[in-house]
Amino acid sequence: NAGVTQTPKFQVLKTGQSMTLQCAQDMNHNSMYWYRQDPGMGLRLIYYSASEGTTDKGEVPNGYNVSRLNKREFSLRLESAAPSQTSVYFCASRELAVQETQYFGPGTRLLVL
Amino acid sequence: TQLLEQSPQFLSIQEGENLTVYCNSSSVFSSLQWYRQEPGEGPVLLVTVVTGGEVKKLKRLTFQFGDARKDSSLHITAAQPGDTGLYLCAGRNSGGSNYKLTFGKGTLLTVNP
Questions:
Q1: Please, what's the largest Cα pairwise distance for chain A?
Q2: Residue A84: helix, strand or coil by DSSP?
Q3: A19-25/A74-78 β-pairing
Q4: Rounded mean pLDDT of chain B?
Q5: How far apart are CA B4 and CA B17, in angstroms?
Q6: Which of B1, B100, B103 has its CB closest to that of A48?
Q7: Which residues pair with residue B7 across a beta bridge?
Q8: A5 or A51, which is more confident?
Q9: Across the interface, which of B88, B98, B99 has its CB nearest the CB of A43?
């Protein structure tokens, strides 16, 4: 049981390049999330998927797209990377309940030059 | 947008000291969670509080949810170097989307041996 896994762990991009961040969970959770974490800004929600087949914008969706490929996988795509997208990206999953736990992956560290 | 203000932003103490960190909002939350994040890793859930006035203890950590469900505190007794990390509070919107958490910016705690 690996929990939430993310690939890659580190990535350096040039401005204008594209890439996809991959996330997978093996806990059979319905909901999955993408956050970015910047110094002094905390965790900000980019996109989320309440269940397979649905996606919704979070607090900071501009410049990103997502795909809920199946129940396990939720990918985040940067079509044309910008230096402002330099950040640490976390994927998370949870199952809806009264006192549910949100499980986070180890993060992807992205540097856009 | 519901905001969670955490204070202090930074805290550096000596091993054995006690400390309290705070999480405040003008909004009501249906539940509030505390996470700890260590360098290079994703946040890990410590506790969820749901009922106004609720107090939960986890070894040397005591969590309290305010009576009005707008604020919370985390008290650590006899801090140890292993308590070092970023402490994040996160609230679930009362009356809003059940899928999204609002995160505070965190308190970075350093416990010196």
A1: 43
A2: helix
A3: antiparallel
A4: 92
A5: 26
A6: B100
A7: B22
A8: A5
A9: B88
Instruction: Give yes or no for a cis peptide into B39 (omega within 30° of 0).
Output: no
Q: Is the pLDDT of residue B11 over 70?
A: yes
Q: Is A50 within 8 Å of chain B by CB?
A: yes
Cis omega (within 30 of 0) on the bond before B8?
Answer: yes
CA atoms within 13 A on the CB side of A8: 9
Which band of pLDDT confidence, cut at 50, 70 and 90, is reported for residue B94?
low
Q: Give the total residue count for chain B.
A: 113
Cα nearest neighbour of A101 on chain B? B45
Closest CA to A92 of A28, A1, A4: A4
Over range A95-103, report the average pLDDT: 73
Q: Which two tokens stand for residue A74?
A: 């939720």
Q: Does B42 touch chain A (CB under 8 A)?
A: yes
Q: What is the pLDDT of residues A63-90, one digit of tens each?
A: 999 999 899 999 999 999 999 999 999 9
